[in-house]
Every structure is written in structure tokens, then in C-alpha cells.
Amino acid sequence: MSQDTFRLPAEWERQSAVLIAWPHADTDWAERLAEVETTYVALATAVTRFEDLIVVVADETLGVHAETAMRAAGADLSRIRFVRLPYDDTWLRDSGPITLVDNDGKVRLNDFRFTGWGGKFGAEQDDALIAGLVDAGVFGNAGHKRIDWALEGGGIESDGEGTVLTTWRCLVQRHPDESRESMTGTLVDGLHARRVLWLDYGYLEGDDTDAHIDTLARFAPGNGIVFQACDDASDPHSDELTRMAGELAALRTVDGKPYTLYPLPWAQPIVDEGRRLAASYANYLIVNGAVLVPAYGDAVDDEAARIIGTAHPGREVVQVPCRPLIWQNGSLHCITMQLPAALSPTA
User: Fold this and answer.
1) Which SUPFAM superfamilies match (predicted)?
2) Residue range(s) defining the domain that contains residue 14
3) What CATH number corresponds to the domain at position 52?
């Protein structure tokens, strides 16, 4: 079969597992480790209700610690596999594999270069994570392709049918000397896409990814787009997010029809030691039979969960407390990477 039959599946397609890395004292979580572990435990407990979970740990001691915490919370340990590897941090949406599949069940792990979000942070171990997982036999005989071009999983959205959505602000930071046309070609080739849709507007204070699309707008089944709106005209985000909403309204499907838009409510500002944190409801995680939704202890948490559930019908909606995560500038989707059903991790 031609390599051109590969595609980047939508996240609502059937999955085999979710991949995470457990926080430890040598990651950026050290200062608030106990607090952030509450989110990881809640996440693991929720995921294992629906599918398998692969947990990367730095050493055996951390593995025992994580297992103890998850057992105490009622996670299904029969669905959890531990893998020991070194890592700089735990944002596996960006350092994990971007997996392509084809109709014959073949799988290819795209291993794009990870630069610590454009050189902001050290990332040597994270950049080697996919190769380490492959060498550990986690992915069986799946193909592995190293691509020497900076791209993070949080920077792209796929509808599973050849359309990729991304943001100019992010990719021009990673590749300042490349044109939009050149980057479009690289994305089309590397992801076997049919087209790339670009957003020029949209950002969140406290986000150091340079406007990853998964904090702003997400594809949903039936030509839907769920997006983070801002209904507070006095908020500094109002102009950018209103302009982004206009861009989304102007997008068209491959059939020339407008997308069905699902605007998400705006949480009240969350400030930590004078720093605004990026509390995006768009950063949710889809798993088999459910959608896991960030909760920030805000009055609109439930409304955000309701809207996301409407956009993903037939799935249970599970809220996961994510306020500890945004202290380090990301949320639920950012710390996870789903693996498609065709990729069956080995035991």
C-alpha cells in the first residue's frame, strides 16, 4: 500500500491507550509536587474507567509511589503499564508521538523534533522520549519516523479526514525563516493532510506554547469546532478571542459549508503570585466512551462541561480538577497523548 494512504486520525476515533509521564522532584513540578499529583491521580482514575493507561516513570521508586497513589484512589491497576525512561518534564502532548494510521492497520509514529517550545526550556531527554519508548518495545512493530522539524502535538488539530488546524503565532515562532506556504507543505507531507487551516488570532496569558491550538479550538465530530470564547469585554483577551471567533466562523469544510461552532464560557481570572494563568476549557481529553473536561473551581465549570458534552454526543462527561496544572501553563490535554486503536502497545 502506498504511504500516501496514511492519515492523522481524529481524537474521537477508537483508542488503545493514553500515555502520560508522572511528575517528580526533578521536573518543573517540584515546588508543588503533592498538589499536582492530585490531578494526575484523578486523571489516571478517570482514564482507566474507559481504557488502558501507559505511565512513564523516571525510576522504580517513582513507579511504586505512583502505583500506591493510584491504587488508593481506586484506579484500575490492571489497565496501567509502567515504563521507566528519563524525561525533562511531563507535557507528553508535545513530546509524545504523533501517530498516523492507514486502512490496513499499519501505524507510523511521527517523531518530530521537540525543542522545549522554541528553546524556552531544556528538552534533550524529552526529545528522545519517543525513541526510548520504541526501544523499550512499547509500540511493538509500529513504524518510527524521525522528522527533523520542530512541531508539538498540541500545535495541531486533525478532523481525521485530512484537515489540519493550527496557529500562525506558534509555528512562526518555531520556524521564523519559513513562509506559511513552506510550512503548509511540510505539514501536508508529514501528516499526510489534504489541507491546513490557519488561525492568526487567539492567545492566552500564561501560555508559553505561543498559542497552541489545543488551548484555543478543537475539532469535534460532525464538522464541529469547540473553541474558547471570551464574553468579558473588559478582559485583555477579549479582542483577540473575538477576532479568533470570527476566523472560525469564516472557515469552511471541504464541502464548502460552515463549521458548527461551540463557544466555551470564560472562567474568571486565576492569578498566582501576580501571574495570570491560562484556564482554557478547550484543553479537554477524549477517551473511549467519554470526554474528560478540565475543572478550575469556577462558576462556569459545569456549563463548559455541558457544551463539550453536546459537541461530543454519546460520551460520558467527566470533570477533572486541573487548577494545579495551569500553574505550569498547561492543562489536561497538554499532559496526555492518546494512542489510536491500531497501535496496540505490547505488554
Assistant:
1) Pentein
2) 3-340
3) 3.75.10.10
